[in-house]
## 1
Amino acid sequence: MSDRFTVPFLDLEAHHAPLRAEFMRVIGDVVDAGAFAGGSFVSRFEEEFARFCGVGHAIGVGSGTDALWLALLALGIGPGDEVITVPMTFFATAEAISRTGATPVFVDITEPDATMDVAALEQVVTSRTRAIMPVHLFGQMAAMPQILDFADRHGLFVVEDAAQAHGATCHGRRAGSMGDAGCFSFFPGKNLGAFGEAGAVVTRDAGIAAHIRKLRDHGQSAKYRHDLIGWNCRMDGIQAAVLSVKLRHLDSNNSLRRQYARSYDKEFSRIPGIVLPATTPGNKHVHHLYVVRVADRATFMEDLSKRGVGTAIHYPVPVHLQPAYAEMGLGPGSFPIAERCAAEFVSLPMYPELTKAQIEHVIQAVFEAMESEAVPA
Ligand SMILES: *Cc1c(COP(=O)(O)O)cnc(C)c1O
């Protein structure tokens, strides 16, 4: 357990400890098989993850960022095209669009779900729009039925950024399975995390899957036969072996996250100064992050830190206000909800290994930090 915090923001050591012997054994298997880049461990994980997501195909790649980029490339998106996404996300969502040569076009998010404002799509769609890239932020799926309906009416692709939503569902359908492609990150801190960098694209479409398989491996259809210009975006065998072990625990870990979120919700609903995360009816949230909104964030975070509770900010600067996108000329005020969330969001500790005592400690600390605002029970 890390240093000065009674409840660290994240505790990967506690996450890995119970399975350490199994991890060491499967890493040994990869070494013995010499299956380091791609290979049988990657194919096995791909089959397992495709089944988990309820789709026919999963393609293991080097990172979530690779997954987003390759999915767009496989759909033929490039220079001159526009892709609609949100500014309240990790930078990679928009970056992947820009990397293809296309232009990201932003719409605001809605509250309290913090996902894409579907009503705003009509205002930004143009003859150059080719795709919509909703982000299943913090572990809850965006309004997929409405987004798919809009995409259908305008002939657009839908690429899901599901990097925070492994196992989430919308009307029973898993994140990644509803759009033309779904993109996952297995960065160590995600709900399903590798021992380094890894990602995957999932899709129902065999043609898209075959295209991404080529793109991730130098455009090869067979050894030294290069059909197109790709890149090296392969998944490592060791990452795949570790992910196969962890995937078996993902659903039960997500259930624990939901249970802990309910404890937080129940207690914090008595504090009027805190805006809580909300689950849209029909959605099953997997609480990658438990994010609240408070007016005086700096003081709140400092008070929690003094009480031994680690916190973080996701994300302090919305993408349209990043220096890299300054040339778009989208100044402050362009997306008011995303901007207010960027100023007031705070992420509290949320992981399956939290103990009952730690959850109680977080709740107590939040009440103390918000003392002047709490309503007596
Ligand atoms: C983590 C993340 C990514 C990028 O994934 P990497 O594996 O770090 O490249 C993309 N989008 C979102 C929403 C993420 O949270």
Note: Residues 63-65, 89-90, 92-93, 135, 161, 163-164, 185, 187, 199 surround pyridoxal-5'-phosphate (CB under 6 Å).
## 2
Amino acid sequence: MSSLQSDKNNILVCLWKVAAISGIVLYLVSVFLFHNPASEFSPPLRLPCPSSELNACASPTNISHLMFGILASVKTWRHRKLYTDSWWRPNVTRGYLYFDVAPSGDLLPWSPLSPPPRVSDDITELLKESKHRRPMMVRMVHAILELFRDEHDWVRWYIMGDDDSIFFPENMVDVLGKLDHTKYIYVVCNSENIKSNVGFSFNMGFGGGGFALSYPLAEALSKDLDNCFKRYPYLRSADEMTMACIDYIGVSLTVNKGIHQIDLHNDLSGFLSSHPQVPLLSLHHFDQVNPIFPKLNRAESVFLLRKAADVDQSRLLQQTICYHKQSNWSFSVSWGYSAHIYESVIPRTTLKKPLETFKPWVRNTRPPLFIFNTRWVTNDPCEAPHVFFFDSIQKRSVNEVVTSEQHRVGYRPVHQAEIIRQIMSRELRSSHLLQSLMSMKELKFRLREMSGLSSMSQSNLCKTVVMSGLVLYLVSIFLLNSPSCPASEFLALTWPSPRPITVVTESQYAPTNLSHLVFCIVGTAKEWKTRKSYIEPWWLPNQTRGYLYLDVAPTEDLLPWSPFSPPFKVSNVDTSQLLYTRHIFEGFVVRIIQAILEEFREEHEGVRWYVMGDDDSIFFVDNLVNVLGTYDHTKYYYIGANSADIKSNVEFSFDMGFGGAGYALSYTLAEALVKNLEDCIRLHPHLRAADLVLTSCIADLGVSLVLHKGLHQIGVHNDTSGLLSSHPQVPLLSLHHFDLVDPIFPTLSRSESARHLMEAAN
Ligand SMILES: *[C@@H]1O[C@H](CO)[C@@H](O)[C@H](O)[C@H]1NC(C)=O
Ligand SMILES: *[C@@H]1O[C@H](CO)[C@@H](O)[C@H](O)[C@H]1NC(C)=O
Ligand SMILES: *[C@@H]1O[C@H](CO)[C@@H](O)[C@H](O)[C@H]1NC(C)=O
Ligand SMILES: *[C@@H]1O[C@H](CO)[C@@H](O)[C@H](O)[C@H]1NC(C)=O
Ligand SMILES: *[C@@H]1O[C@H](CO)[C@@H](O)[C@H](O)[C@H]1NC(C)=O
Ligand SMILES: *[C@@H]1O[C@H](CO)[C@@H](O)[C@H](O)[C@H]1NC(C)=O
């Protein structure tokens, strides 16, 4: 710096910078204070209805509102054609194939069953101007502009994808129809491969799996695209360019778990058999994986999946887990694809993890590999499932289904067949939809042993069952599939199924306020002296409800108890009862789990949400009230967040709300949870962490985590200013680990930092 100052010009430059910076500071003050600065500083974030369909804007979204742009190359089209043709419906689905060169030779005349072909624009000039180094990638991104230019009447969504992807257009209509197509929305998927997300971006849509752009976003993007290429001539991939251009407009991604990039190799069956309960939108990289059905080739596999999709696309692949009480068996059914049967009770959290039948995208990489948890494939006959694959659908009448399947049950005790018959007829009576489905179709399965997954040898002691009886059982599950299993006494969950809310008083629907939240903070007497400085800044005495649960009675130095702290209770848990299983549980783990039970006993008048957290976490209660107020507290809700540390998620779970950051349970879920909590703890003795046990118990109730990006476990160390300075645009709900990280403001202590931050919050 001193050499700079010796130069007059540089001083001028410096002065100018100072002036500019103080101008910026002034501007920043205005940004800080006024959330929406003047329009010349930020682009409008909402466009009116596209002029082409002003009147019809509010009508339900249908297939004619979707426009597909599929990127293809003439060289690969011959063998990839079957993927696109499998889902394309001529004269119904709208869109184009964008080829590198015009199709010729044996590709002509063009098949009427394929999307109409186009040839990508000549972008030579553009490449020269932008100095872009990746012509292929520019062509791919440019297709968005071409598609938008070619067709925009009545369009609500533009969907871009590759020619080795399979799309499920009816599901896309359902999913996109729930979003507001007049806003800027970018619907995408991440890669399954952790390293791809790290290498490119967790905020990028991986384009092969397909992504959807709302009309206004496609329009804004098309207008700016040529400039955008000039701005980023160095970007390596089409997806990265698309992300950068969309970021420039100020739009963030919306991740959808039904879109699949399939950055995986070999046998996908484990992955596809644990599909979350969301509609399947796409499967990419069909060329890179084994055929998805055993003993079939790729074309036959695609055709078979198509057949299941034609019966009911909305349920395709979605995993349903059921338990059969009398036999203690577990069933995991992936609709239209596979059924796994285990001759033991296996927790839902386990069954929801895909069996790792597949290989990572990049060979020989070291873990962690995937953005989800997996299970090892085992040959242990007591743990490995019997695996069935979907085989065929045939037309039969209702009566025929029952009769013919009963016939097969000759191997089974008769009463079981009788139960099934009763269920089927009862369920069918109650559902016209199913009745019509049944009258047309029958699902039939051919038992196919999958190598490595299951062993059915004679010496197999665990497998004592005659399989054909199961076929009938599976038919009933496949047909009567619903998120929770039907016919309670037969396909009962291990634990009580959700109890419908019967008392709905008016006040339950009044806006949620602070008195509807009850906090449950778990701490220790020893640490409270320092940690109270993290809780007191946000705790409003006599307003915030809830308790601090201490391990032992507070020591002399903590008394008299501060009126600004939450009232305390001493945990009253007889852990000896629960530790009897001789397992690794430590007393404090049980204490944390049991806190919800104690809290529930204390406070439930007018409670809508229980918020659990640690004593070194800061909560932002107004934001919590606002965010929780958007969920229906009369339903089962479990709202939490992952760790920022990938390895923690791999080790514990990507589907777990990390407890320190805090998580919220709706009243009804908490009620169901505490009812069987002690039994549930006994059932999960191998789990080490309190939050993992709770996640498992909640999963056993059929409830999955709802992720909220405002809760922060802070699974990092030292200076967190970088992390906090890039917070996504969602309300901040919590910050954990205040004791482990550096004070978040320079020159302040930890407790001063906590107070300082709360001043901004208030
Ligand atoms: C889709 O909805 C529009 C109205 O927005 C209607 O004109 C059109 O006929 C519908 N298309 C189909 C296939 O239902
Ligand atoms: C699509 O529509 C065109 C014109 O209406 C018609 O000639 C053609 O046969 C239709 N294609 C299919 C596959 O139905
Ligand atoms: C199922 O499990 C329960 C609890 O472990 C046990 O009491 C019962 O005997 C088991 N039933 C069968 C058929 O194995
Ligand atoms: C919260 O709402 C309830 C009605 O549901 C009302 O009785 C209560 O006074 C409200 N509390 C606060 C702090 O506004
Ligand atoms: C809370 O309420 C109690 C009893 O109503 C009162 O004695 C106490 O001063 C209040 N505490 C604060 C911090 O306002
Ligand atoms: C990070 O924090 C730990 C513990 O507070 C300290 O020992 C270490 O030196 C810090 N590291 C850096 C790079 O600041």
Note: The radius of gyration is 29 Å.
## 3
Amino acid sequence: MKSKIPVLTPKVSEWMTELMNNPCLLAKLIEEYGSPVNIHQTQPFIENAKKYQQVFWDLGLEHRIYFARKANKCTSFIEAAAQVNLGVDTASYNELKECLDAGMEADDLVVTAAIKTEKLIRLAIKTGVLIILDNSDECQIAQKVASELQISAKIGLRVSGFEYQGNRLYSRFGFDIRQVKNFLQENFGPTRAFNQLTYTGLHFHLNGYSTGARAAALNQCLLLSQELFELGFETSFIDIGGGFLMNYLQSKEEWEHFKVKLQSALKGEIEPITYQNDGLGYKLIEGAIHGDLSTYPYFNELYQEKFLVEILNTRFGNGSNVETARSLGIELRMEPGRSLLDQAGMTVARVNFRKKDLDGNWLIGLEMNMTQMQSSSADFLLDPFLIPMEETEEKVPVEVYFTGAYCLERDVLLKRRIPLMQLPQVGDLVVFVNTAGYMMHFFESEAHLFDLAANLFYIRNSPPEENYEFLEDKGALKDPSVSNYMLAKH
Ligand SMILES: *Cc1c(COP(=O)(O)O)cnc(C)c1O
């Protein structure tokens, strides 16, 4: 489509296209489960996991991959993780409980919660699950609980404050890497305050998406582990956390063009391309653009397994991270969330109304709200797909904003003005692809007492045209008396 305003064409997997080519089926799902509905597949998740595993196998590294559970609420991904021998990184009592109830082994789990309640710590220690501790107060609680239970607790320490490019990387989490040695020496061991805690390894999770920073952090942890070994503390693993980039978009040109056009719009050189000329992080000060785009970097060339390889192969004075980890016999661990969910889910909503606002912009009201597709960054920069229910005779291209159901002026689902081939009709569907990682679940709320979206799993039978099958995610069923799955065959 030729459009004056920039487009951002998403990468779309075959199963999504298959469903979008069947408007009737999607309409039936909305009828049955309400709008919006989240549709998933576990196969892409499994393939993404295998690509990470292959990297470690190829490099001959001991490894363990944990799926960061918080990135999506569906229990089915826990089952998929277990299928390919992935562990799960849990960040709350309920997340941990659910994995244990699903039959996962303690060795396949880790607790990295930012706030660890005594209840969570007790469950982890009782069941023998590794806890990554962030500060001395947490050690205190763990020590108390472990003493009561008369078992030793397996713990790792989260570290931060790595040196990178002449600065130290700030984080509100973890122990200052420079103090770990003293802290262990003073508090750990049979006659010390935390004698019920057994130190087993180091952990970090960095903000941002720099491979250089991650490589440096890993290297500094490897060096620290050598020093700790000399003091009698054995580091069996180093966990490098999550934040592995993924690539959402098809074209670098579109991505670069978008950024240029957004800046022009802010300067008033062209019509706004975002709602009320939102700069998405760019600011216009005295005619010049300042600041940076504060969205996720949706287009990337170095992503997923390539991103991991880069971190592992980075060289330092003591050799590459791979060589050092191998020679020290340290297991490397990672906790990807978003990047494992690449191509694993999409969100479908129904058009409720069309109207023109005071400025003459088309607003398309969707039966969903902003929390059901919300990025932690300034916007979700992927073009959605319009699925018309009926063929219309003449197609007049339009540009629209999608608005949501919350009574807030700011419930605008995408900040960008979206070009479409035709004006949506009431009852048409809009599909947002690749929303499984954070987008659909992380911020979802029940204001106005709206129901949360149903979570379906598309079971791909062959040939698909004859037999579509969708299973509702078990975790989404609030009433446990309902049979495990509701089945909708079409
Ligand atoms: C959020 C989080 C992750 C996952 O991060 P992604 O960006 O989804 O890969 C992993 N580990 C910890 C400790 C986290 O907080």
Note: Residues 477-490 have pLDDT under 50 and may be disordered.
